[in-house]
């Protein structure tokens, strides 16, 4: 049995390495804004649930009831100690002292294209195509939209190894929003079927633990444009997966009312 388990794990590692060698989508600022998605991508429906502390727990997230509920000052905003490049350990109380950065996270629909703009981070790589309202071969950049506004197709997801992230609605009145999350335990071997969608009730926010796979936040067209507060680790390390490039699929996520 031990030999069999070892062989299976070895096979999984080899498959993961093969994927890594085969797929090399670069998440540059240009590619993130316009990834040139091909036609004919297979669509996978993501299981969806109402966001509660119980449902979110399985993916390393929870609801928040105010923007200052999770902060470094309160000692409940997680920052990961890193890096540790060799065998010598980090000295105590080092490697996690950069703290957090925060600012606005703006989202809007442009016909069938949904964009996010993270103003909390000081980089050019902070403006994203976060999803589309219909398959890319049908999507329009000008109104009228080809999609019906009830769901979004996601072509990528990412995680932050250096710290947590939260989103809190700023637009009044607040509207329900949707997040698509995958548990940190999947690491770099995440697969499309590992992702779950959650509708966050109006007036609530969401906190994501370090390593939780996610994208931005999604709303129906009638609730956009919208603005959120985001708080995250100041280092802002980001590891991304292109579902379209690596697996040839798009994730279909239903949008809350």
UniProtKB/TrEMBL annotation:
Keyword Hydrolase in the entry? The reply is yes
| Reactions it catalyzes | (S)-ureidoglycolate = urea + glyoxylate
TM segment ranges: none
The record's annotation in InterPro entries points to: RmlC_Cupin_sf (IPR011051), Ureidogly_lyase (IPR007247), Ureidoglycolate_lyase_dom_sf (IPR024060)
SUPFAM superfamilies named in the record: RmlC-like cupins
Please indicate if the UniProt record lists Hydrolase as a keyword: yes
Q: Which GO terms describe its molecular function?
A: ureidoglycolate hydrolase activity; ureidoglycolate lyase activity
Biological process (GO) annotations held by this record are: allantoin catabolic process; purine nucleobase metabolic process
* Keyword list, A-Z: Hydrolase, Lyase, Purine metabolism
Assembly and oligomerization: Homodimer.
Q: Please report the name of this protein according to its UniProt entry.
A: Ureidoglycolate hydrolase
Which organism encodes this protein? Answer: Chrysochromulina tobinii
> What is the taxonomic lineage of the source species?
Eukaryota, Haptista, Haptophyta, Prymnesiophyceae, Prymnesiales
């Amino acid at each position: 049995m031990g030999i069999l388990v070892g062989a299976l794990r070895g096979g999984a590692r080899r498959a993961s390495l093969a994927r890594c060698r085969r797929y090399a989508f670069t998440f540059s600022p240009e590619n993130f804004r316009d990834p040139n998605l091909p036609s004919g991508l297979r669509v996978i429906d993501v299981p969806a649930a109402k966001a509660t502390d119980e449902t979110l727990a399985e993916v390393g997230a929870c609801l928040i009831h105010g923007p200052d509920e999770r902060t470094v000052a309160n000692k409940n905003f997680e920052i990961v100690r890193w890096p540790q490049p060799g065998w010598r350990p980090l000295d105590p109380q080092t490697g996690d002292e950069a703290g957090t950065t925060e600012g606005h996270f703006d989202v809007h629909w442009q016909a069938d294209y949904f964009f996010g703009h993270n103003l909390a981070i000081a980089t050019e790589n902070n403006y994203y195509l976060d999803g589309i309202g219909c398959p890319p071969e049908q999507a329009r950049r000008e109104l009228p939209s080809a999609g019906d506004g009830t769901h979004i197709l996601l072509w990528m997801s990412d995680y932050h190894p250096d710290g947590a992230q939260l989103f809190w609605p700023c637009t009044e009145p607040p509207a329900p929003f949707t997040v698509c999350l995958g548990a940190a335990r999947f690491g770099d071997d995440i697969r499309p079927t590992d992702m779950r969608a959650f509708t966050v009730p109006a007036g609530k926010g969401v906190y994501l633990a370090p390593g939780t796979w996610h994208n931005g936040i999604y709303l129906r067209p009638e609730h956009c444009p919208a603005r959120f507060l985001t708080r995250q680790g100041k280092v802002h390390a980001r590891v991304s997966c292109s579902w379209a490039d690596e697996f040839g699929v798009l994730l279909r996520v239903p949008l809350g009312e």
